[in-house]
Amino acid sequence: MSNNKAFAADASRKERIKEWVSRPGGFGIITGSLMFAAITLVGFIYPLVGPYAADEFVGESLEGPSLSHPMGLDQLGRDVMTRVFSAVPADIGIAFLGVTIPLTIGTVVGILLGISKNKYVVSTVSSLIDGINAFPLLIIAIAMVTFLGPGLFNVVIILTLMSWARYARIARTKAVVVLQQNYIEAAKLMGYSKRRVISKHVAPNVSSESLAYALSDFILVIIIVSGLSFLGFAARPPMPEWGSMIADGRTFLGQAWWLTVFPGLAICWSAISLSFIVEGLSRRDRGNS
Amino acid sequence: MNLLEAFDVSVTFKAFGYEVQAVKNVDFVLPQGKVVGIVGESGSGKSTFARVLSGLQEPTGGYVTYLGAPIQDGKEIYKGELRKAVQMVFQDPYSSLNPRMRIINAVAEAVRVHQNPNKAEAQQIALDLLKRMGISEIDAFKYPSSLSGGQRQRASVARALSVQPKILIADEPTSAIDQSAQSQLLELFSELIMDGLSIVLVSHDLGVIRYLTDNVYVMQNGEFVETGSSSKIFENPSNAYTQKLIASIPSSGKK
Amino acid sequence: MSNALVQIDSLCIDVKVTRTRRLTIVNSATFDVQPGQLLGLIGESGSGKTMLCRSLVGTLHRRGAYINSGSLTFNGIDLVNASPKEWRDIRGKEIGYIPQSALAGPNPVMTIGAQMAEAIQLGEKMDKGVVRKRAIELLEIVQIRRPEIVLKQYPYELSGGMKQRVMIACAIAREPKLIVADEPTTGLDVTVQAEIMQLLKQIRKNLNTSIILVSHDLPLINEVCDDIVIMHAGSTVEKIPSAKIQDTRHPYTEALYRSRIDLVEPRGKLVTINGQPPTVGDWPTGCRFAGRCDYAKPGCSADVEIPSIKIGPNHLTSCIRQAEIWGK
Asked: ipTM of this model?
């Protein structure tokens, strides 16, 4: 049980916040969240208010960083900074979809599987889930791209098809545990409808675990999206996207380092900020046990 | 008048080709306004039987009646309004409450579903109920992880009482909590009994059984080996196993 | 008191919670254990009794805890500053440990025989025949029937009571001078509990081992032990011979005694102790029981040092007001 002052009736809001922060992990969660919020907000706002457009030719090609172009210009004379920030909807946005859609589908399937009494359904679907989980994500993604063709939305489809099984596995395991708890039996004793028990008692407890995993997965997916684009399988020119920007800048690495470094930093920044949040949350869990 | 009656109840579990009979052809009676104890050691089948009485476990043989009518109708046990009449409190205070729900909401939910859908009024009813159980308003808005084991048990009792049951089945309610919390919980039960609640108390703690119950059933290996009034069982047990149990209780002055 | 086997004085144990935060689990524990004494240690959760046991077995560091101040002597050896090597010579050989039945117990992947061999040898190489003979001898002492068969069994094949007897056999394997039994019968059936208590009393008699029996069950401790040490909120508040428990000189002990359910008439008025035990580390100044005490006066919560008052040859209390409440 933690600091009592925060639970006293007269604890001010400020005191409660201070207590929340001082618990283990608080620093990491806040830093990470701020960092992530920063890049996401800038990514969505800057292209609207910035002086240039992402595909506008504004100057000499391969001009180095300067006051008017803090991240330099690329080989076609486009402003790198604008392109880096314009890539946010692609990288972070697509990654977001590539996590939330499998998360939702997988968690629903997992819960239904945990509830199901039909042995055949459970074992068939479980085998399917295990089968899908057996394949390495990036490699299958590349293979599927040759089927579906390149493109960011195809990437979302591929990720959904491959990832839902991971979430389903997590959700099902947790659902089985939750269903054995006394509070679920108590809910049945209270005469609650099956729908209420599932939505208000089972789902919240199962999804807390799925959500925790989703946050870590987010980092992975950002890197996968960039990776696929780097290989040429996802974003197509002239769409700004960090991975493809790095790929394009490869040939100019010696002369124009800013073409690869800044998109690379953007990837790092996103991944690191999320890692801070994940680490902070796990420290908090450990600290509280 | 008998509230609950069990006739020739058996429960057999099947797993991996093995069959285990946890409860063997057992008869049981809960008279109105009385507290009946089921005492036995671990593995005796008392928890399984308690779950049959509360409707969580379907018996493989025999049947249970409430006010004379069988509780099981086809596949459903305690259908409809009947479900509220018999409630249960479990042994483990840590899994008895939804960790993601504030205590007040856990109790108010039952009120909203069965009594009064108005959120504010239901919350007030829940608050009053929790206060009666000795849980302050501040504590009522906390999550279960912020409360002690004893408080959680009392919150579970509040939740059970929110549907105004006639019978409370308590499965080892004091086994997992501190000494002082035990006394508080037992005092609470005494008050509820005076208000007219009938209780089935399952426990391996003979002290608790002696303190709270009117009648006692002694269970061993799925069968009731002795039954009678609580005073008779404790002062003059006739069955050898019962005698062994009574003799094992530590008592002051005996070295 | 000078030939005490164990001497604990103002022992203070802290725990490292985070890199910067420290929590005091045991604030001031003082008592001694004589050779061959069966001492009961009673307290609710948060009283610090488990940490105290760990300090006697040298496993504090496993929980990130350490002794901050005070002294802890066993047979003349200073245990506060003992090196890991010194602990290896003491743990198991001089001080035995019986864990809580529900929590620990025999290693599920080893046969009973293998575990007993470990406990008997404690790292030293011994002849296999000698070890086996000793194992059977020990199992017979703890009244396990057909020990030759049990040696080959795995823990899952044994009942809770039998597993606990095996743990006791392991604890006495090297005939230690002191055994620390941390709630050995919690979770076991009452008949099994009675048998294990009998066993412990026999071991004490035959081997002249001192036993510290930790429990939250006052009637049990009262019946089995010679003397009782009561802990509350991290300190020892009273040490009293169990025969004299009714002449207690501390309100907490009195409250514990009076709230015993076996002394009350059925459905009679139960004496309850007000409030909750204080949260670990978040202790008030002065006497930590004052907030729940029926006899408390404002002076009890003042920032004073809690004394250790000697009432009789074997009776110590730390109630500041004891003389006023119970007379000289």
From this structure: 0.89
